Amino acid sequence: MRPDTKCPEVMCIGSAVMDITAEPISRDIPWQEKQRIRSIRMGVGGDAANQAVHLADLGIYAGLCGCIGEDENGRFLEERLQERGVMTQYLVRRRDLATGTALVLLDDAGERSAFSAGGAHYAVSRRDCETWENLPVRAISLASLFSMPELEKDGMKELLVNMGKRKIPVFADLASDKEGKGLKGIEAFLPFIDYFLPSLYDVKKLTGCGNAAEGAGTLQALGCRNVIIKCGAEGCYVRSGDTGLQVTALPVDPVDTTGAGDCMSALFIAGILEGWDVFESAAYAAKGASVSTLFMGACKEKITRERIREYLQAAAPGTP
Questions:
Q1: pLDDT per position as a tens digit, 181-216
Q2: What's the CA gap between 125 and 88, in Å, rounded?
């Protein structure tokens, strides 16, 4: 799978933060001044960082282009990423900004509420891409559109044009639209995106469409070649060419849904790099993302091909 060279196969661009997760935090019981819960832990977070970790777990050389602070949290985050095999030499350490941090509260059903503080993870710029832009990467992933304001304002389109000239496929996902830019905030980039993987929630909010099929059609009309809309427990809706298909997830009782979308994106990218078609890649990714919800944390556990195969065989004996 891995080439002999140490060049990244996939460059994940965007958010890298430290997650602080507390669980269980009930949505129904009033909070008290002091109360005991099951666990509080720290770990890797952020769309791009999560994707890079999952890709590395699959045996793919994954680079991470983003910004962290020159602080204790930044050192913690970088060490955890290196332990999992992520190529962190493309991270930029900022003295003027703190490492981004997110507080993730999980309820008893594994559903999350996330609170984030501004920090270095918003600061990735065109200049930060120059160290790897001309390397022979096989793909790039814009893991955090709406979360890279400097790059999106100045340099994103130039970067994507360069990728297009070199025939390097572009994958993209969305962070939450915190500044309320709406569809116009990313519309200029859509014609350069080969595989767009937003959530159904974000698609409805962006397009005003009532369902995944309508939303995928709208995004495709704006230039996206392939649209894969993540629908949580319902799997995903895939639109490629004139064909649309709902792909099912693996039925599970989730423990923690944090980072499941990032896991799905990574698995989908891996499938495309294997030479699978869009529908095969989406089906595999949706089921693998279901497996990821059985473990705590955005990417604490390794979601490997072998682990996915075990769960698929348990759900449908005889699965190869």
A1: 999 999 999 999 999 999 999 999 999 999 999 999
A2: 16
